[in-house]
Amino acid sequence: LMHCHAGCSYEEISNALNSKGINIRSQNSSDDSDGVVSRKKIKKLVRRVRLASTINKANDIYFGSRVAMKHSYFELKGIWPHDVRIRYNQLLIPMKDSKGKIRGIQFIGDRYDASCHDEDLNSKVPKKFLKGTKTNGLSYCIGTKTDTIYICEGFADAVSIYECTGEMSVAAFSCHNLVNVSQIYRKKYPHAQIVIAGDVDAVGIKCAKKAAAAIDGLFTLPCDDYEDGGIKDFNDLYRIEGKKAVRKKLAKAKHVSETGETGIVAVHISDFMKMKFPAREMILEPWLQTQSLSMIHSYRGVGKTLLSLGIAYAVTTGKSILRWTAPKRRGVLLVDGEMPGIELQERLSKMMSSSRNLNTLPLTIITQDLQDHPLPDLATEEGQLAIEQFITDDTDLIILDNLSTLLRSGIENEAESWQSLQGWLLKLRSIGKSVLIIHHSGKKGLQRGTSKREDTLDTVLGLKWPDDYSGEQGARFNICFEKGRTLYGRNAAPFEALLYENNYGKYRWIDKDIAPKKDDTKILELEKAGKTQKEIAMELKIHQGTVSRHLKEAHKNKTAHSG
Fold first, then answer.
1. Across the strands, what pairs with 104?
2. Within a 13 Å sphere around the CA of 204, how many CA atoms are in the beta-carbon half?
3. Quick one: DSSP state of residue 520?
4. Which tens digit of pLDDT belongs to each residue from 16-68?
5. Could you give the CA distance from residue 93 to residue 103 in angstroms, rounded to a whole number?
6. Per residue, what are the HEC states of 225-264?
């Protein structure tokens, strides 16, 4: 069924369209003859209507507010208001497209402690975008066209630069949006000198240099060191050292190639040790971290998609699944290249609480049934860019289900076929994103295809049916950590998982330790009695190597459980 996030049911949408003389087929169809529209086209129409609703709401809010003359944020940052408005003591920063039309709003709140230290300023000021805003390519511009145009991340930085230079300054709202905004202004002003004024942090520097390289522009930073509590952006430089210092740094802007780095960032050890990288946090304790790459693989029908959906739901709700817990809610992008939309709906419905407000759930879904064409091939740059547009600042985890349907170029067993996707995954990790790949197992039970895939992965989970499994048991499998860079002790121990449907038609997960096999128990008893491995093998009539392997595995599990 069609779903509208504004809250309209399929019947309500259908009735509204029928009143306009538009009928909906009961089955999907590619044609729209005789006023009949396919469900796929209706879904596309709903997405367009939803975006149009956000744009209309942004304009209503902005033009229904008053001009901002005074606000604590201006005092905090030492800047003047420039064509921004205020509503309920929140600043409204208009987010405009290339034609100057408002398509979203950034809200800047008023809650801050005036006695806080400088490095805490931004954390004390709540900022958020109007729900539904697509930030890619949107910006806030101060001033009219000049020979030099400055593009930076934040509103306060853009205002600071404008007040120091009197030249056009543009806020991109995010370092990840610098490339998009820079390309728009390069196309709009092909002969202007564009300077990317970056923030001093690892991701900010990388994105700023990438933007400058993409448009053959100039690049500069507000300072040359990375000391904690120092200058992090051009507003800091403006407040601490004044206008002259800002103009001096902007005048030192260079092409990326002139830095001798050609887009590659290199720093001396003394500077590197002073840099403040974002701390890695747990998305799903104890194994799924921020800035991590992981894989779950199994044979067909074992339950890897059910597990991945359970993980997605746990992460977006801040709840637990099996022995793993999400400490807080995080945004998830699920890219499903295989499952029919109706089955995906059914599975998610059974996982969700009936009282859950879906509008508050930070889960975005891309699936084949929503498209009029095949999903993009993630082995290509075009395919990667097509997915990137849905990866926002609030997206912490991307789930790709599964590799064989989303990675279609090249030969699966050849390492070279993996190179393009690996580069993209490392890029996502470098900007703070985590990726969970869902894949098939090969004949030997390991992940299918080249083993080079595992080189860059932090964690690899293999799912296998227990020895006593039967088909009517559904999703019942053993979970084994085949690779875990940060796992040890009980956290790394294998366990059994079972998914069942309760009396209310909802899915529930249970887990238990894997019971030792009878041979394992006998081998341990004989070892405890003082028998050597050779004597145990002769008594049980098995190979001595089998005894050795069983003992190693048993002692490993014992150590894991005691940890």
1. 95
2. 24
3. H
4. 666 655 565 444 444 444 445 566 677 777 778 888 889 999 999 999 999 88
5. 11
6. CCCCCCCCCHHHHHHHHCHHHHHHHHHCCEEHHHHCCCCC
